[in-house]
Amino acid sequence: MKRIFLASVFAICFILCACSADEETIPEYEYIAEIDMENVKDVYPNFSNIPAVYIEIDRDLFAVNRENYVNATVTVPDSGVIEADAQIKGRGNASWNLPQKPYNIKFNSKTDLFGMGAAKKWVLITLFYDKTLLRNYLTLNLAETVSKGPEMDCRFVEVVINGQYNGLYLLAEKIEDDDERVDIKKKNDDVIFEIEQPYRHNNLCDNCIFLRSGVHLTFKDPEPEDLTESEFASLYSKLQSFMTSADSAIRSGNYEEYSQYIDVDSFVSWYIVNEFVKNFDSQFVTSCYCYVKDGRLYMGPCWDYDTCYGNQDVATCLDPKGYHVKNAPWFNYLMRDSEFFSLVCRRWQQLVDEGVFDGMLEDIDTQTEYLSAASANQFDRWRDSLKTTDLRGKRSLFTYKEELDYLKNWINERVKWLNTKWTVE
Question: Residue 272 falls within a domain, yes or no?
Fold first, then answer.
């Protein structure tokens, strides 16, 4: 116990020193992945003050894939969950290829974690590609502030799988039909869609809806396999007809016409969040969600933000100036409409006046202090995380402090630029 505690203290000190290194220096880190302890549930709380999730599976972790769930026992002491029966499997697309992999957890019965509401399905989001560890957290919380609709709540946790420390994760709700999440009514033919480009599934999709605007919809809940062939055929026919009409109304650029089909407030909220963070995928590439409820189309919930806030050298996403999501299907029509544009400007100015973005900068400092020990553990466990240049190439930074400063500066510059564009007349 004493040796382990001293080792963790040494690791934390080492990281703090490394963070002050010259930007040209790529730091080296101790590797604690292979620490094996008999009483891991008693020992690991010494590593940090972050809640822990302990997962036990009856096989090697490398045998877990994205296709099939495997049986697991999950313990979350800080949430009162002790050895609950569950299943886990891998998740994600590009993130599944990272050393620190993301996972889906499915409890056998509905389970409330940290007061986020009882549900069976939960998501463990990897933080490997985000050297600040904060981008998903900040954006999901911003979405909850901006939006009046359902958004996915989240908490930081440290994860131990089969007695091995697997790093810092963001535990989040899963986008699904649930009264605690997206409360749709499938009996009324309500549905959750994901918007993504056809190449994301090799241009093969017999059960997708293609719209003239360029929007490509895949059924997320219910999925085709959840229904009988005749049930899905009926649902598909109704939704294709509705979405074709809604798409035509949006393309008209006429507020009186498209407001009959869409929940305008949800489109305004989703657009502000995603344009502000300048997320590449939010140009309807992938991980963009919308849903039909009670005969209206809603945008959201927001999802997947590890590459935003200038963290991906693609298109113009590194630059805090300029539009990106404005060029996406639907929004390239909506933002030409003076009424929609006016709603965006008024909502943006309200958020600025309420200090939302100043609060975000303060939250970065608060969360950095809160994660001080856990971040050291994360960079020890995944020693190549701070070294990677995969997302930003030559503009990569290699210390935690530099990355945090970069994030705060990018947000400041983004707010300044949007303030010059989204002005209330």
Answer: yes
CA distance 55 to 319: 40
In a domain, 271, yes or no: yes
Judged by DSSP in three states, 167 sits in: strand
* Tokens describing residue 239: 């939704």
Residue 410 lies in a domain: no
Q: Is the peptide bond before 301 cis (omega within 30 degrees of 0)?
A: yes
Check: CB of residue 171 under 8 Å from CB of residue 157. Answer: yes
How many other CB atoms are there within 10 angstroms of residue 39's CB atom? 9
3-state secondary structure of 71: strand
No. of H helices and E strands in the chain?
11, 12
The stretch 50-65 carries a mean pLDDT of 95
Q: How many domains does the chain have?
A: 1
Categorize the per-residue pLDDT at 274 as very low, low, confident or very high, splitting at 50, 70 and 90: very high
Q: Is residue 213 a contact partner of residue 334, using CB atoms and an 8 Å limit? A: no
Please report whether residue 2 resides in a domain: no
CA-nearest of 303, 402, 415, 405 to 348 is 415
Full domain range(s) for residue 245: 186-309
Q: How far apart are CA 88 and CA 80, in angstroms?
A: 19
Residues 6+ apart with CB under 8 A from 99: 128, 382, 384, 385
393: number of Cβ within 10 Å: 10
pTM assigned to the model:
0.89
Write the burial class of residue 200 (CB in 10 Å: 0-12 exposed, 13-18 middle, 19+ buried): middle
- Which distant-in-sequence residues (6+ apart) come within 8 Å of 228 by Cβ? none
Q: Is the dihedral of CA 382, 384, 388, 390 positive or negative?
A: negative
For the chain, give the mean pLDDT: 90
Extract the tokens encoding 207.
């059960």
Coil/strand/helix, residue 420: helix
**b/e for 1-11, b at 16 or more Cβ within 10 A?**
eeeeeeebeeb
